[in-house]
Every structure is written in structure tokens, then in C-alpha cells.
Write a structure and sequence with these properties.
Blueprint lengths: L3 E6 L8 E11 L2 E9 L1 H4 L17 E2 L9 H4 L5 H12 L1 H5 L7 H7 L8 E4 L16 H13 L5 H8 L10 E6 L2 E6 L9 H14 L7 E6 L2 E7 L12 E3 H5 L12 H11 L3 H17 L11 E4 L4 E3 L32 H6 L8 H25 L4 H7 L14
Antiparallel strand pairs: 1-2, 1-5, 2-3, 3-4, 6-7, 7-9, 8-9, 10-11, 11-12
């Protein structure tokens, strides 16, 4: 396999990509140790060019990743995550990956063997002069894609045509089974149930996203569909405006400059708030929106709100929060306090308590009264909208009972610190 790849980018407003530079594998003791990046001369001379992110300023020469990182975060954000890597392992290794848990392929392999319709506006190519999109040739049905995802989870072989269709979604992040779709010009992500699910996570995410919209949070558009006896969550991509352009996008993990391997305990919402104040457009509005999302995560017991599940658009000059996504209630016992992967206040408190949110108001440039108003409004609206939102997400009576006041509005969230 090659020791380098070329990074192509869709500049703001552009419908075709240009080559931005080269990512180079740096080897130490015979193993990949890190990945450097160098802007191409043509890109540096392009009057429309923008830095891929502030961490990679537009300048000549080799740029190594910041201390503690294997690769610049903006490049890592564009690579496949857990699920995509499983799909690529199946495609590249075949039976070898089914016989035992294989060692990960190197990062360049994942870059160059994944689909080109990846999150954001970057892609990786073997050529600096010719862009060739890696797209699926076989257009599979939703049922076929769900069946294929289940086979990968079970470690069973796929037909070449179905493996090719599932490959299209290999560049989309996340750990759960999913696939990319195009429907009437809309770019969609289909999120499937997992063979290991102990409860209907797809529908739980569907109702949480519906409630988030109803309390006023800007979210990705979602819809729960039932097909072939199974539920699937259809998510409309917000990084694809539909006019052939692509939105540059980075995760909060990248914005914070944190290694994903050590992120838990090393990231916090106040740290994200600091970046919003310094690097975002309309920081006060963004801080209020971030605070509202934190409150909602507490209300619905979304404890998967790690730094990769918050993201921002990058226009080459400033950042803007993307719509919220991946809001999934976790199972819990009534009257039990959950915790979040990122601290809510400056003292490191990550308890899933509304009191923690209110006491942290100043970190988000809010008064305690303003914070209390946001909390009260969301609690009231969730109570008012619950039944209708549950209908929209196709929840059964049993599923509603399992969520209400255990995951959603668990009495423990109202406790004092």
C-alpha cells in the first residue's frame, strides 16, 4: 500500500474538488507513527483556497500533527470510524477478517479504500492530478443494505454486489451499522438496528431527535421508517446542501485538539464554550444553543454526547455549530443519576443533573435566570409533546413505558447537587 495520499477539498461554494495537499505516513521502528501534511503549490497559489482548519495554516513545508496526535484532527475527521472500518476490513481482508478479530489496517488504507461521499468536504485520492470518486456501482435497496449490515455484524460473507453497495457508507463516522443513500437528490444516512441491541435504539434516537426539534434545538432532519419487519432511522445530511457543494465540517474533538484515544476526561463543554467565544460566528447565540443541547441531553439521558458528537461547519475563516445529531437516550433505572463523557461545568462535574447545568450558566455567557428559563421551557415542552413525538417515532406502548421517567425525565435529574 502507498505511504501517502492526496487530500482533495470542495472549497466553499464549489461543486468540484481541487487538490489541497499530501498526507504522508511517517514510519518509526518499521510501523506507522504519525502522518504529516503538506499543502500543494497550486493550492497555496489558488486565490479561493482556505486553510483546511486553523490547525493547518496555509504555508509551505511539512506540517506535523500537534503534540499527542497521530494526525491532524481535520484529516482524522474525514476517515472512517468503527463501523466504516468493519466494512473496509470485510472488503479488503474478506474471510481473514471473519476468522478472527483482525488488527486494524493502517490509516492510509482506510482513507483510500473508503467511499468518497464522506462527512464534510474532504476526500483522499492516489492522484494529485485526477479526481476519481469511489462510489458504489450497485444501487441496493434499503432491505438489502440492512441485511448486509447484519451479515457483517455476524461475521458472514457478503455477495460482491451487496458489499459494493454497503461500501458507499464506509466513510461515514460512528460505531453503529449504517449506509449512505441518495433519494430524490437528498443525501441520506440510514441507521440500522444492530444484532446486539437489547432495546430499540433506532426508535429511541428517533423520538429523542423529534423531541429536540420540538423544544427548539436545531437538529438534523430524521424519520423512523419500518421496512421488512425492522426499523430504520433516516437522517438527512446537513453537510450536503443539495446543489453539488459540500460543507467543510470538523468535530469538537478536533476543535479542542484532543487525541481520541485519551478524550474521555480530557474534554469538557466549557472548553468547547471557550472555543466558541474565540473562533465562532455569533458566539452568544452559539453558546446559548450549546447550553440548550446540554440541558436536553440531561433530560433524555443521552450519555453518548462525546466530543465527536458535536461538530461545526468551517468556511475557512470561522466556525458555526452544525445541527445536533446522534441524540440517543440510554437505558437507566428510575431515580438513578447518569454521567456524561464531557464535564458540564468548569469544575469537571459531569453528573446528569439540571442543577449542574444551571450552576454552569456563566460558562455559556448566561445568567442563572436565563439558564433556569431554558431548563423550565424544555421540561414543559417535553411533557407536552411526548405522546405526539412518540407517535411520530412509532413507539409501542411498551417502548414508551420503558423510556418515560427512566431515560426521559428521570426524576433524578431534578435532584440537587
Amino acid at each position: 500500500m502507498s505511504d501517502h495520499a492526496f487530500v482533495w477539498v470542495w472549497l466553499p461554494g464549489a461543486t468540484d474538488p481541487v487538490v489541497a495537499g499530501r498526507v504522508q505516513q511517517q514510519v518509526q521502528a518499521g510501523r506507522p507513527a504519525s502522518y504529516s501534511f503538506t499543502y500543494g503549490r497550486s493550492y497555496l497559489q489558488n486565490p479561493r483556497a482556505v486553510p483546511l482548519l486553523a490547525e493547518l495554516p496555509m504555508e509551505q513545508g511539512v506540517q506535523m500533527p500537534a503534540s499527542g496526535l497521530e494526525i491532524a484532527g481535520v484529516l482524522l475527521d474525514a476517515t472512517p470510524d468503527s463501523w466504516g472500518r468493519r466494512v473496509i476490513n470485510e472488503r479488503v481482508l474478506g474471510a481473514r477478517t471473519r476468522q478472527s478479530e483482525p488488527a486494524d489496517l493502517d490509516l492510509l488504507t482506510y482513507m483510500l479504500r473508503s467511499g468518497s461521499d464522506r462527512i464534510g468536504a474532504l476526500d483522499f485520492q492516489t492522484s494529485a492530478t485526477e479526481y476519481i470518486a469511489r462510489n458504489a456501482e450497485h444501487q441496493a435497496t434499503l432491505d438489502e443494505l440492512m441485511d448486509a449490515a447484519a451479515l457483517i455484524e455476524k461475521g458472514e460473507a457478503l455477495s460482491p454486489a451487496i458489499a459494493d453497495a454497503l461500501f458507499l457508507g464506509s466513510s461515514v463516522g460512528g460505531a453503529r451499522p449504517k449506509a449512505s443513500l441518495i433519494d430524490g437528490g437528498r443525501s441520506l444516512i440510514a441507521k440500522f438496528p444492530s444484532t446486539t441491541d437489547q432495546y430499540p435504539i433506532v426508535k429511541y434516537e428517533g423520538v429523542a431527535m423529534e423531541l429536540a426539534r420540538r423544544v427548539g434545538i436545531t437538529t438534523a432532519k430524521t424519520e423512523v421508517r419500518h421496512t421488512a419487519g425492522r426499523d430504520v432511522l433516516i437522517v438527512e445530511r446537513f453537510d450536503r446542501p443539495g446543489d453539488g457543494t459540500r460543507m467543510m465540517q470538523v468535530s469538537a474533538l478536533t476543535i479542542l485538539g484532543v487525541n481520541p484515544e485519551t478524550a474521555r476526561g480530557a474534554t469538557s463543554y466549557p472548553a468547547v464554550a471557550d472555543k466558541i467565544r474565540s473562533s465562532f460566528t455569533q458566539p452568544r447565540a452559539a453558546l446559548s444553543e450549546l447550553f440548550a443541547r446540554i440541558v436536553f441531553n440531561v433530560i433524555v439521558r443521552n450519555t453518548d454526547d462525546h466530543a465527536r458528537n458535536t461538530a461545526a461547519f468551517w468556511d475557512g475563516h470561522a466556525l458555526t455549530l452544525t445541527p445536533a445529531y446522534d441524540i440517543t437516550p440510554s437505558h437507566g433505572r428510575r431515580d438513578s443519576i447518569a454521567s456524561h463523557p464531557m464535564a458540564i461545568d468548569v469544575d469537571g462535574d459531569n453528573q446528569s443533573l439540571l442543577a449542574v447545568c444551571i450552576d454552569a450558566a456563566a460558562a455559556y455567557l448566561l445568567s442563572n435566570e436565563e439558564a433556569q428559563e431554558i431548563v423550565d421551557r424544555q421540561v414543559d415542552l417535553v411533557r407536552e409533546e411526548w405522546r405526539d413525538a412518540a407517535d411520530t417515532a412509532r413507539l409501542t406502548t411498551r417502548e414508551r413505558d420503558a423510556l418515560w421517567e427512566t431515560s426521559i425525565l428521570n426524576p433524578a435529574i431534578f435532584w440537587e447537587r
